[in-house]
Amino acid sequence: xxxxxxxSYSHDLVRHLGVIEGARAVIEVLPLPPDTTLxxxxxxxxxxxxxxxxxxxxxxxxxxVRRAIARSDRTGSDAEQEVRNxxxxxxxxxxxxxxxxxxxxxxxxxLHRIVRSARSRTAG
Length: 124
Hints:
This protein is mainly α and 124 residues long. It has helices at residues 11-29, 34-55, 62-70, 78-98, 105-123. The protein has one domain (34-123). Helix 2 packs across helix 3, helix 2 (34-55) packs across helix 4 and helix 3 packs across helix 4.
């Protein structure tokens, strides 16, 4: 049995759809300002970092993750260091992607080393 929609197109509906489609076309053509693109990308990486480290039991909240990432030194708790190292690993993945380098065993070992350096402090 085929789907039969229970509505009809009115002149107003078609006009509104045209306005929406026109606005969509403008948005698709206009690029985001570089600072907005950078901010959105940074925010997405922060959320990814928090989510991934939280899965591993990291107790830091969103604000603490932002502070840990902003601090480049190795001071602070093991949880903060874990966040910074995960952030560094994500940054390395982006560099690798931009260079369009094939994934190798050496690259995976490098990522493991970056992430592991936080855990070595915890593990003792």
